[in-house]
Amino acid sequence: MTTSSTDCIRKEIQLRAPQARVWKALSDAEEFGTWFGMKLEGGFVPGQSVFGRITHPNYEHIHLEMRVERMEAERLFSYRWHPYPMDMKRDYSAEPMTLVEFHLEATGDGTLLKVVESGFDQLPADRRDEAFRMNDGGWTSQMARIERHVAG
């Protein structure tokens, strides 16, 4: 299921994996990077930032910061970041960050994973629509990636 407004992207997927397995794929920074396609320097700690770079072909030039907000074991993992920071000549540090939330819920078949990214309406007008469009498509592919990762 997918729903979105101009400010918020919502995706969900039923994963055939126990909630503890999905939680590890989200909360362990090295494992997160494996399925997400990034190399992170350090672990996830609420209130702290972790830095890294994208490892997908043609996106290796993207360096990023993830500011971890909340980690509630096997239920919620959230962080803030600058969405779609493609222009290496632009300083994104003064721009608002969007909030990414992963919600986990145990089901009879495994785990329901919901991803919500919000805050796009706060972004500068010149990049708001493209950041939303690219992340909307990006989350669609990331849901498939985590599904393959936790199944294997």
TrEMBL record:
<dbReference type="InterPro" id="IPR013538">
    <property type="entry name" value="ASHA1/2-like_C"/>
</dbReference>
<protein>
    <recommendedName>
        <fullName>Activator of Hsp90 ATPase homologue 1/2-like C-terminal domain-containing protein</fullName>
    </recommendedName>
</protein>
<feature type="domain" description="Activator of Hsp90 ATPase homologue 1/2-like C-terminal">
    <location>
        <begin position="16"/>
        <end position="150"/>
    </location>
</feature>
<dbReference type="InterPro" id="IPR023393">
    <property type="entry name" value="START-like_dom_sf"/>
</dbReference>
<dbReference type="Pfam" id="PF08327">
    <property type="entry name" value="AHSA1"/>
</dbReference>
<comment type="similarity">
    <text>Belongs to the AHA1 family.</text>
</comment>
